[in-house]
Structures are given as structure tokens and as C-alpha cells.
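User: quick one, fold this
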Amino acid sequence: MSKILKAAGMLALTCACLFLTPEAVAAVKPQWVRQGEEVMNRKRIGENYTFKVFHTWNADMNLLQETRFDPLMTYVREKYGADPQSMTMDTLESVETDDVTYRISFKDASGTGVVYAKKVDEYCYFEDFEANEFGFEYYQLFAVSEKNILPVFDKFVIVENSNPTATALSIIPGVGQLYKGETLKGCGILGTEAFLTAGALVSHKYYKKYQKNADNGVPFADSWQSKATSCKVARNILAGAFAGVWIYNILDAAVLPGGSRVLVKRPDGQNLTISPSTSSAGLALTYRF
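Assistant:
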């Protein structure tokens, strides 16, 4: 039983460190910032665009805003070998919604090209580093079409996490954290509770076995009683640890904030077409059903 208790102690220490990782502390970051564009691309329904995450940093927030499209333009230039002098950007405003699609036109070795992009979400926070260094971390999530393909973007919905929902889900240890996008913490809690449950069940099994031998007066009854007592203590410790982690799991889900997430949904069968417009952009997007 001492081996089980030592293993439980090591697992508890490991999980305590895990719960204090930057992911756990900075849980307010949107999920797409922490998970990256690869995870977002696995959520795509449409096939004619990809998600791209752009990350810039500067101590001047105004400069970040002024140059916010530079990473997108650089991505298009490098991917298609576009002539920087030929690159232009204009906006296509949706007639039905407030959505704005950016159109990037350029020339490359094969002639002319055009790429469409839509900003899905953005996130900015102030980072105060050691050695008196500080600045703003600026993240942007774009959906970017392939070259010369008029896209039908999926429907993107920004969802703020609900702590009441996370609390209800945390009845199953770790699920509330997974809902809030804290994958490492959620898996750590779930794994810890699974180990503690297994340890408590094994300890209880041996406790019953050894106690039965002691009660039946088999040879070395005192020894069997001592083993039974040790197993009972181990079972109670493991059960108490399970209860403690479970309570922590509920409080964590109920109190600590979780980052927002982007839901990707099918665009309701809408087809994207371009029609003339008198707006300053020159073109407007309309939806045909």
C-alpha cells in the first residue's frame, strides 16, 4: 500500500504543477490563441479557405493597429510570390450582415491573382516582462481563401464561456475545464481522479480480503489485521484526496474565467456572389438562396 500512496503523492504533485502552468493561469486567452491554427483548420467545414493566425508585438498599440494588415499581406506575398508593388487591398461589405471581406489583388509570375480574407477574431493583451520590458501581444485570426477562388466562408460564431455551464459539467471531474478550453488542466484533473479511484478500489479490495483472514482466525491473524488496517488507511486517504480534487475542480470551473472560442458552422446553404455597388469599395457581397 505504501507504493500506491507514494504514486498518489507523486501524481498529486505533478498535477499541482500542471494546474499552475501558464495555460491554467492565463485561461482568459481565446482557445484559438492557445491551440493554434492547426486545431482551427480541423474544424473547417468548407474546403476553399484556411485559417491563419497572425501574431505581432509592439510597445505602441497604435502602431499595431496601423499595421494590422501587414502580416496578412506578407503571407499572401510569400505564398504566391506576389509583386509587392502590385498588391492592393479593398473591402467588400456584405449586404445582409455587417461582415466585411477583404480582397487582396496582386500580380505574380502567372499573371494576376486575387485572394479573399475575413477576420474571424482578434485578441490583444499587455505583457509585462522582467528586466523592465513590456509590450502588447496582438493576435488575429483570419479565414483566407485560395488564389482566384471565390470563397463560401463558414459561419463563425464567437462564444464566451459560461461559468455556470462549466460548473454543471464539472460534476464529471475535468469536463468543465475542457469546456473552458483548459485542455491540460482538464486532462490532469480527470487523470488524477481516475488514478485515485482505482487506488481506492484496490485498497478496499485488499482491506476486505485481509480483514476476512483476520476475522476467521487464520494463522498469523495479527499480521492480517495489520495489513487490513494499512489498506483501510490507504483507502481513506485516497478517497479523501479524490474528494479534495473534485471540490477544487468545481470551484475552479465556477470561479476562474475561461477563454472564448470560435464555433465553425455550416453557412446555411448560402452562396456568395459579387454584385456592383455604389459604395466606396466599388463592390458588395450579396447572398443568393
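User: anything notable?
Assistant: Confidence is low (pLDDT under 50) at residues 20-26, 271-289.
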